[in-house]
Design goal:
185 residues, Dihydrofolate Reductase, subunit A, 8-stranded mixed β-sheet, two-stranded antiparallel ribbon, 5 helices, 24% helix, globular, Riboflavin_Biosynth_HTPR, 5-amino-6-(5-phosphoribosylamino)uracil reductase activity, RibDG_C
């Protein structure tokens, strides 16, 4: 069994926001509809094929439900929530436990998990040392304000650059591995 890994794969504006002030991601639409986007679609599909489970927060989950058809087929999906939410498919499971312990369980069960978002859950996974890879799709736009991926309280973490891909639409994807903490050893 290879060492499992968790990838935070997320789109952000160049100034670091993953959603606008209302939590919306409408500003991503024009890039998703861009006909020049076959190269991005291909990169995404290659990534998606390697994923064995999805992890997301309740707000992200509701947003995806709001887009219409569930885009992830029957891939096991874990949604962190304390609320009652509709189940998109039989493979969606709602978890209300401690992020650290749930993440540890998922890492034992799956080789590759995609941490879809949102910001709060991503920060908690990072804080507890459960993000191995960071894939940031930088969208060529400055939002000016909104929901930041990282906040001023996030501690310093070293990243090792793995790859940079530039797409025709102007989106740049940065890939890093996240250096592990040693404070809990």
């Amino acid at each position: 069994m290879t060492e499992s890994n968790v990838t935070l794969y997320i789109a952000t504006s160049v100034d670091g926001y993953i959603a606008d002030d209302d939590g919306g991601v409408g500003w991503l639409d024009e890039f998703e509809e861009d006909t020049e986007n076959d190269d991005i679609v291909e990169a995404y599909e290659e990534f998606f094929d390697s994923v064995e489970c999805l992890v997301m927060g309740a707000t992200t989950y509701e947003q995806i439900l709001g887009f219409g058809e569930w885009p992830y087929g029957d891939l096991p999906t874990y949604v962190f929530t304390h609320r009652e939410l509709p189940q998109a498919t039989d493979t969606v499971e709602f978890v209300a436990g401690d992020v650290d312990s749930v993440a540890t369980e998922l890492e034992e069960q799956y080789d590759h998990c995609w941490l879809v978002g949102g910001a709060q859950l991503a920060r908690e996974f990072l804080r507890t040392g459960h993000v191995d890879d960071l894939r940031l799709s930088l969208i060529p736009v400055l939002l000016g304000s909104g929901i930041p991926l990282f906040t001023a309280t996030d501690e310093t973490r070293r990243l090792q650059h793995l790859d940079t891909q530039t797409f025709r639409s102007g989106i740049v994807e940065l890939r890093y591995s996240v250096e592990k903490h040693h404070h809990d050893e």
